[in-house]
Amino acid sequence: MKIATRTRHFLRAGWLTRGICVLAFVARAGADDAVFEKDIRPLLEKHCFKCHNAQKQKGGVNMEQFRNRAAFYHEPRTWEKVLVQLRDEEMPPDDKPQPTDAERGRIVAWIQHAFEDDSAVPRDPGRAPLHRLSRLEYNNTIRDLLGVDTRPADQFPPDGGGGGGFDNNSATLFVPPVLMEQYLAAAGDVLEKAKPERIFTARPDGATTKEAAARKLLGEFARRAWRRPVEGGETDALMTLFKRSDQRGESFDNAVKLALRVALASPNFLFRVEPAVTSTAAPLDDYALASRLSYFLWSSMPDEELFRAADEKKLHDPKTLAAQVRRMLRDAKARDFAESFAGQWLRVRELKTTAVPDRGKFPNFTPALRDAMMAEPVEFFQALLRDNGSLMDLLDCDYAFVNETLARHYGIDGVKGDALQRVKLADRNRGGVLGMGAVLTLTSYPQRTSPVLRGKWVLEEILDSPPPPPPPTVKTLSASDKPKDGLTFRQRFEKHRADATCASCHKRMDPLGFGLENFDGIGAWRTELAGQPVDAAGELVTGEKFAGPAELKKLLLARKDEFARTVTEKMFAYALNRGLEFYDAPLMRQTVKSLARDHYRVETLILAIVNSYPFQYRRGSDGIAVK
Questions:
Q1: Which of 220, 229, 344, 368 is deepest in the core (most CB within 10 A)?
Q2: Domain definitions of the chain by residue range
């Protein structure tokens, strides 16, 4: 058994690591400054500072900056990487002096204890910049407010991607000047196309004056559009616009639409405005919580049932909130959550932009196949939401969602029609995201597969342990995967990555990628490559050997908590509209533990998010609230 594997087993069991009693060390250490200075920093200086200092920062890491325990909590992701690489003996590199087993165990134990000490981390709901509606949120809100499906925001400038990797990140949703012009134009256009009954909820008649009818319908519209009760002065401002148009001789309908156009161009509509918090931190009111919930699960405004729950001040009741979550996940509008979250996390949107296979090499890659590939992970994730499935199905399962085109590509018989449908799989090579054509295509080059891209994708999107960027002078292999100079593609690849400067990263990535070599550049199954049997065998850095996708997935399933942590962090970032910070780390760990106790059910994760402190609270002007 390799030392790394043995060390991990000992640490999990709480036993000895080559003569050091880890539990005794942790009990003595307490992860405080004195212990860090006496026992840990000297080891970092001895084995890490030469390559990871303020000047060199190899892999973008500066270990020299950590001078006390407090600094640890400001860079938890860095220390998570340090933990993994020390534990798995990836660092220091093989060509550098190695720490003894006792030294390695001492650092690993200190890091683990520091991560478990949640009392040292401040409680903070995080920054909440004014959130402009993203293009998806704008389109969906217009649809649900006015009953139109014209998607005007498709013509707006693209949304940026920020911390967490999602385009709904508040900090990157800027308002360029051209966008304000487009907002005004879009407001006029959608009002002309709106269903009459969505706007004119009151009209003047014998018993109702024009002003009374206008005030009623403008107040009702503004309440829905601005997603909160409207104050009298706000209705008065809209009424001023109506009266001016009416005095100019405009028809009742046109005078109302002018005021409505201004309402749709107001910051109250274009932004998710939340009440200001003057104290250190305070809970959201029910209307702001309703909006956070609806834009998380629907990418749209609250419906009338959510508004009623907010009116009755019931949304902070956990039972009411859970009932609303379950209702919303089973609504058709939850498909937008599946498409937005899964599409961005798994990066399958790139199939329409950067990941374009060579049609000469892969003539079967038609627009119909591409569209079916992009729809598969969305349908899969929506089914998890609807059925409260296990997140582990994303790693491995015995079913897939395919239509006739995609089934033919996968070699599955008996599927007819364009609609995606759930089918039972004959083997476990295909089930889960690693067997999806979209993922396999976007992690390939236009003319061949790429074990590096696929291995890197698994590290980043499954295990949340991305490798550092390659050196600028690194050379790539040719586009062809045919034998050359008497060497197969894999043999040429092994020779290419033999350089010691590249080996430390490649030994993590490449086995994962080669385990998927039975899938070609567009995800079709193959047993031969250039006349030779496909070699899909590999060995992880921890010593486990496997051959092919099914065995690789079994090994990944043994790391359930790492995958659960990845999905947890991704979904929290998506729900909170921001990147995660060091003070979010305890919540991530607590959520993963809750998931493990409930068999990793997706509903458990979503309920943990909506009941969490950062989801229900807003930071005030005074900053952080400390426990």
A1: 344
A2: 3-120, 339-557
